[in-house]
Each structure stands twice: as structure tokens, then as C-alpha cells.
Design a protein that fits this description.
Largest sheet: 4 strands, antiparallel
Number of helices: 4
Structural class: alpha+beta
CATH topology of the largest domain: Alpha-Beta Plaits
Distance between the termini: 104 Å
Order of helices and strands: HHEEHEHE
Keywords: Membrane, Transmembrane, Transmembrane helix
Strand content: 15-25%
Number of domains: 2
Low-confidence stretches: none
Radius of gyration: 40 Å
Transmembrane segments: 12-33
Number of strands: 4
InterPro entries: Transl_elong_EF1B/ribsomal_bS6
CATH superfamily of the largest domain: Ribosomal protein S6/Translation elongation factor EF1B
CATH class of the largest domain: Alpha Beta
Length: 191
């Protein structure tokens, strides 16, 4: 039997206490902390899901409150699309605008509709010959042409070239010096 003196006995008991405490922490406290970590992560995940549901519910509530007004706006937007049956008449509208703004014009369908796929727009290529002011008048009339409430039109490309004296002689269309040639790519959206 080993007999310890007072201070050695104290250190032996202290060491044994630390060993027992370490085993206790390792067997009971660490697994408990690990479980607490897992449960707290699940709690945070659930809180995040609850916040998403709250946001979603408030968005649905806002949509229900705003739907009548949005429905009216949607009907106004639908009126901005040119009815498919009036697409041919729109070409004559373009011709009228060109004549009214003193432009010599040529209008072509840029991309003919392919196959039986649903057509959502027509692309026109409009060539104009005249002065720069006449071109600006044409564009302004194109945007402001009275059509209830207005047409949804996209001006996708605009090319402007000042005609030389040689070009004016070649064209033989009676343009004044300083005239320009403009090519506009216009997309008309239809219903």
C-alpha cells in the first residue's frame, strides 16, 4: 500500500478529480452540447422557413389587395398590342405617315413569319429618303400616331447616311442637296 504525505495526497486526489471530471465531460457534456448545436441549427432553419412563409403570405395579401388595379392596367396594356387582323392596315398607316412627313419611302417585311409558330410581332424595314427634319417628323408621328391608346412599337435599329451628289444623281428621285437616306428596323407587337 502506498501512503502519501499530505501534499502528495492532495495532488493525487486533485489529479483523480480532474480525470473523473474529464471523463464526465467527455461522456455526458460533449454529447449534450452536440445535441444542443443540432437542435439550435434546426431551430434557426425553422425560423428561416417561418420568415419565408410570412413574406410569402404578405406578398399574397398585397397581390389580393392590388389585383383589381393591376387587372385594369393589364387590360390597358393589352390594348397597346396591334390586333393581328389590322397588321396589313398598319402598312398603309406607315405609308401615310411617310407621305405626310414628306419622305420618299420603301417598306419591307424584314423577317417573314416562319411556319406555324405563334407570331408575336412583325419586323419591318423602312427605307426613307428626305431631310433630317423629315426623318424626325416620321419617328415622332410613328410614336404618336393616334391609335387608342397607343401602339407598342420598338425601333430596333436606325441607320442614317447623308447622300452625296453622286447618290442624288443615281437615285433620280428629286431630292435636294443635303438629303439623307435612313433605314429603320421597326418591330410591331401584335396580339
Amino acid at each position: 500500500m502506498i501512503i502519501f504525505s499530505g501534499s502528495k495526497k492532495f495532488f493525487a486526489i486533485l489529479a483523480l478529480g480532474f480525470i473523473i471530471l474529464a471523463v464526465f465531460i467527455w461522456l455526458f457534456i460533449l454529447p449534450l452540447l452536440n445535441k444542443i448545436k443540432i437542435v439550435s441549427q434546426k431551430y434557426l432553419d425553422n425560423q428561416e422557413i417561418i420568415l419565408k412563409f410570412k413574406d410569402r403570405n404578405s406578398a399574397i395579401k398585397d397581390l389580393k389587395e392590388n389585383y383589381p388595379g393591376e387587372k385594369n392596367d393589364l387590360s390597358e396594356v393589352k390594348g397597346a398590342f396591334l390586333p393581328k387582323e389590322e397588321a396589313v392596315d398598319f402598312i398603309s398607316t406607315l405609308e401615310t405617315i411617310a407621305k405626310r412627313t414628306n419622305n420618299i419611302f420603301e417598306i419591307q417585311l424584314a423577317k417573314p413569319p416562319a411556319g406555324k409558330e405563334k407570331i408575336s410581332s412583325f419586323d419591318f424595314r423602312i427605307s426613307l429618303w428626305g431631310s433630317f427634319n423629315n426623318l424626325l417628323d416620321f419617328i415622332a408621328n410613328l410614336e404618336n400616331e393616334p391609335y387608342p391608346p397607343y401602339r407598342l412599337i420598338g425601333l430596333e435599329n436606325l441607320t442614317i447616311k447623308r447622300l452625296t451628289d453622286n447618290d442624288l444623281e443615281t437615285l433620280e428621285i428629286g431630292l435636294a442637296p443635303g438629303a439623307i437616306q435612313s433605314v429603320l428596323s421597326v418591330k410591331i407587337y401584335i396580339q
